[in-house]
Write a structure and sequence with these properties.
This protein has about 425 residues and is of the alpha+beta class. It contains 20 helices and eleven strands. The chain has a seven-stranded mixed beta sheet with strand order 3-4-5-2-1-8-9. The chain starts with 14 loop residues before the first helix and ends with a helix. The structure holds adenosine-5'-triphosphate and magnesium ion.
């Protein structure tokens, strides 16, 4: 179909996503409304970064958007946001709007729809995020976003102090963008942070953590953390950031860990701040981590602490000691710890040398029996064989059998395990 609204080619977006989002824009245009791509996707395309999602801003009121498309979800209709579903893709379509009355330094109390896309862009946080593009590739860039991207600067739209006072999370976003993109922060914007930093205490830890996660999994976490400390923001969070100086080698080791391995990256951060496994437990709770991630990080720190408590000299005892660590903290934590130590070796801050790591890795690989469920006997079967009643001694006995079987000191079959169990029981009762 010949179309008066030929679309631009997106170089950094999935072609299907780009085409479907262009359909959304075309449909709005045909109904006589204005519509543009806006925000992160426009910025990322200009920067040559991968575009992950595509947001659209329009002059159409939310009810109108809903009536124009067959499949919509009224995601945040009060604030003007409608999710449009288009052949398996989904897009947030938001009516041009301005916000006012940020009484809690976070949530605007009033939202008003406006007629001019430039007004909508003005409410956005940074110049690079306040750009829109039309279907034909035309630019709406009233605050010099492209020039700032070219100069590699993060700059607030309008007066930085006011913008941070409205929404304190923007200060953390500012540092996150500077860190992830390797940009500097404009002088006035930086001064704005220094002047408004106390308002950070209003922000939910959940939101700060999610920005932090992006700093940590980005290409230069050290840079972001330094800015976070230098700005003084780190002392203003709701939950503490117990910083007593950074072990920069530990932070640099983050770059050697794949971004998806965020558990290891978080562990490195806690290690760099000298935080114990026990302290991490409470800290990660207050930072609103999921139970699963918190437990994984704490296990990793605990294994690290156990390892540091001292290594056996001769190979046989060292192997046994390592196997005990693996059984106690879990093979997953052990694997992650070896990965972490390998990274630390490259920055010169490791607790285990590469040859030691290689040996421990080998022992871990060979380990066939890793937990009680791998043992060829159950607690009940043991009780029966020994003709005894259960009690705390049973868990202890199972633990001993597990260690010996894992280390290969006894065979992992019922007969051998029962034999060993009897030997241990007689020995203990003889005492
Ligand atoms: P990314 O998705 O890469 O983390 P983004 O810029 O797309 O970055 P989003 O949170 O997806 O960030 O927000 C989309 C757009 O909404 C931003 O580009 C910006 O224009 C605007 N925006 C987001 N958060 C704020 C905020 N706290 N204050 C003002 N504008 C914001
Ligand atoms: Mg985004």
């Amino acid at each position: 179909m010949a179309d008066m609204f030929n679309s631009i080619r997106w170089r950094n977006a999935d072609p299907d996503m780009a085409e479907r989002s262009a359909d959304v824009i075309r449909t709005l245009l045909r109904h006589g409304h204005e519509a543009y791509w806006v925000g992160g996707c426009v910025r990322d395309e200009y920067m040559g970064r991968r575009v992950s999602d595509m947001d659209i801003t329009t002059s159409a009121l939310p009810e109108v958007t809903c009536s124009v498309f067959p499949k919509v979800i009224p995601t945040g209709i009060k604030h003007g946001t409608v999710t449009v579903l288009m052949e398996g893709q989904s897009f947030e379509v938001t009516t041009y709007r301005v916000e006012s009355g940020y009484e809690d330094h976070r949530h605007p109390t009033e939202v008003a729809f406006v007629r001019d896309v430039k007004e909508d862009l003005r409410r956005r946080d940074f110049t690079m995020n306040a750009m829109a593009r039309g279907i034909d590739g035309s630019w709406v860039d009233p605050f010099g976003g492209r020039a700032d991207v070219d100069r590699q600067v993060i700059r607030c739209v309008g007066d930085a102090r006011l913008r941070f006072r409205e929404d304190a999370l923007r200060m953390v976003r500012c540092i996150r963008f500077a860190s992830v993109f390797g940009f500097s922060i404009a002088v006035h914007t930086w001064r704005g942070i220094l002047s408004e930093r106390d308002t950070l205490s209003w922000i939910a830890m959940e939101r700060i953590r999610s920005e932090f996660e992006k700093i940590l999994t980005g290409p230069a976490p050290l840079r972001g953390l330094e800015m976070f400390v230098r700005s003084g923001l780190y002392t203003r969070m709701k939950a503490p950031f117990p910083y007593t100086g950074l072990d920069t080698q530990a932070i640099e080791a983050m770059n050697r860990i794949e971004p998806e391995q965020s558990t290891i990256r978080w562990t490195l951060l806690l290690l760099a701040c000298g935080i114990s496994a026990q302290a991490a437990e409470g800290l990660l709770r207050s930072w609103t981590f999921s139970n699963k991630q918190r437990e994984a990080i704490v296990k990793l720190l605990a294994l690290h602490e156990s390892y540091l408590q001292g290594q056996e000299e001769d190979t046989k005892s060292a192997r046994l000691q390592w196997i005990k660590l693996v059984l106690f903290h879990g093979a997953e934590a052990a694997q992650s710890w070896l990965h972490l130590q390998t990274a630390l070796n490259q920055t010169g801050a490791a607790s285990a040398s590469l040859s030691v790591i290689e040996q421990l890795e080998g022992w871990l690989r060979e380990l066939r029996i890793r937990s009680l469920k791998d043992l060829a006997i159950t607690g009940n079967e043991l009780l029966e064989a020994l003709d005894k009643r259960g009690g705390p001694w049973l868990g202890e006995l199972l633990g001993q059998l597990l260690e010996k079987a894992a280390a290969g000191l006894i065979n992992n079959d019922k007969e051998s395990l029962i034999e060993e169990a009897k030997r241990v029981v007689i020995h203990n009762e003889g005492l």
